[in-house]
Predict the 3D structure of the following.
Amino acid sequence: MRRKTVFALVFLMIASLLIAACGGAQPQPTEKPAKPTEPQPTEEPKVEPTAVAEEGQAAKEVEAGELLPPIVAEPCAPDCPFEGQTVSVIVNTAGAKGPISGPFYEVRDEFEAATGATLEIVEVPFAEHFPKLMTDMTTETGQYDTSIAGAWWLGELVGGDFVMPYDEYYDDPSFPQWDIENVLPGPRDLLTWGGKKYMVANDQDGQVMYYRRDLLADPEHQAAFKDEYGYDLDVPQTWAQFRDVAEYFNGKDLNGDGKADSGLTLHLKVGGQGMFHFMSFSAPFVIGPENSKLYWFDPETMEPLLDSPGHVRALETLVDLTQFGPEAMMAWSLGESWDHFLRGEAALTFTWGDLGALAQQEGSQVLGKTGAAPIPGTTEYYNLQTGEWVKTEEPNMVGNTTGGSWAGVISKFSDAPEATYYLLALMATEEKSLIYAARGWDGVDPGRYSHFLEPQGTAGIDEYLAAGWDEADIRDYTSAYYENFNAEEQFPYLRIPGTFEYWTQLDIHLSEAATGQATPEEALKATVVDFEEVTNRLGREEQLQSYKESLGFE
Amino acid sequence: MAETTGPLQPTQDGTDAVPAAKGVGTRTDRTKAIFLGPAAIWVLAFTIFPLLYAGPRKMASFRYGKINQFVGLGNFARLFRDSNLHTALRVTLVFVVSTVALEMILGFALALLLNREIRGKNTLRAIMTLPLFATPVAMGYLGITMYYEQNGPINSLIRALGGDIVPWLSNPFWALVAVIIVDLWQWTPFVFLVSIAALQGLPLDLYEAAQVDGASGFDLFRYVTLPLMLPTLWLILLLRLVEAFKVFDVPISLTLGGPGRATEVYSLFTYRTALRFFNHGYAAAQGFLLLFIVMLMVSLLFGRIREIYE
């Protein structure tokens, strides 16, 4: 009997260990991780850019911290301008070598030597960042001098008079110099409000399409695809083509492991930022040459427009597409969806710039195989102004800046606003920004002319190759982002008070549609009801005013 | 603090009375204050103050995290027409009924099982109670790993046994089941622990007398164990009901309320209203509604218990 008991206990322990071991291999998504967290390698000495790699040459895998930005600020001793001051920055938790927060640890010594001030970095989980910041500001505490904020917070921060414009400092030559005109038009618009500068350029978010270049170039797939669909297999330019390519590759082995893989991957978990997918996806169903601004609300009445035929068709199309991805993606956040693509288990996706950079890093199965292109368009869009569908001869492509575009704002309650701006401007200098954009791990996505390769921009390819990029991948990547941010039509980014609440309601109802709890039309009508509730509570007139200001109507 | 002890003694003019043994009375007062003070402070700080503080807030609307305007009973009126809140209430009720019922049955059954002389019972009892000491949020995050649909441990096991994978977190029905299972995992040990403690305190002579009278094993359970355990079971039921209504940690860490609103329980809904949307007025009204529901439930249960035992 005793032996049986011992055996049972040993069996339980082994089973527990096995379960834990199996579980340990799975990705661990977190609530709304704005940027993926990378492993924490040790800091290495700076590596000088290497010679240009040949086309197709395997790129060097680079560890976080290996490529360091140059020192651009001179030490100030003995006459330091901000001696004794402390600058406190609140940023999403990701660690000293993590996205967005990492560069602050890197720059700390340089900043403190150049100003005499002390830099205090406060990391908080993404989900707590905005509430903590708002609590600090509504109570006028001034605990945080700057927040590396999401662009959609600006409506609340400016509307509540919680942050200060930095125009005066920007023109002052005693601060580190950076050029706001160097930022492409799409993300540049997010830095200002009412003609004043509030956010100091850092990260530039936007979604592009990623595809497996090797699969699309495979002659066997090309022939089979043409037989099945009657046209050449190529990079999708419309969502209809995207659907065909996803359908064709779905169920095929895409990474040689003998298992069926997916046509596409998305992340659609409630709270997993799936609503951003819908924004980028639906834009060309609604926005077009004859309607470049109307998407969210009627600018006369503040009535929501999200149940328009264009939006409904977009959601129907998106829901239809989900059949070509794993069912599990309904419960995926960013991490799991990106992981699926990086394992070579999906042919297509559309998401942020981080994926392109992560594809270059150790463990990626798609290094040198990751093509990127602007988000596909449509051949027909619903003009909200006329209430009619408009056909287009060329694909109707709409650029987007969906995402956080995490950038610094200066608290109005800061007792060290100048030192704070110095810090943010230092990190925005062209020399540093190029390295930030070239590396994958720091979460800073490209969006300036100086980030893009010639002839679109002014960057050379050396920094990217030194950061471990495959040459074909980086050329596709920067080209996709350049076209995205320079697109004639841009998705109108919402950044009015209550944006997070509007988006949360949209996110929840999208999930209901995607999981069959509601039809796309029902889901969008329910979203409209919730939007109205938010608008009424926050004040229709005030919201309308803010909406017009955010779109530049006034 | 005017209360004193001891007989009143007449003054010289015979008009007033002063407490006798004043020194003794003061010492008694001080003793009372020392003993009652912490409790009074606790109640004032954590019950009365929040209720008073929430008073004006639940009748206000907020903008930019600050009170915007007085809306009277508007926030309470919204409670009756907010379909999202009604969904959260429905989800919560399903959760409460499922978890509490299953936990009561499982926990009590396990306690009965391990309340007998079997080898290794102390080890098994210790193992049984382990989940109780885990952090609920950690269990929620562990659940993400366990329920991972593509090759998580649970689905791998199901597949190995020849079954189809279960869409644990991507299907509205299964997502709620997943949350319920994690709660069962955590709280069944609580029912077990309290039940087994009570079982061990039952008087043995009653069992011996019943056995002498020829009672079967089922008769012993039906006519001795169950009636004696009922007060304890009522207490456990009450505690679990109150806790289950406030469930928050597991849904927020495991499903974030999704897919859609399939696992959005009441506390999660209120949390979002207050700390995500900064609509503190409406959140306060929701808090009062939950307080009312729980108090009503507790009153009904106490009433029932009183009926039984008085």
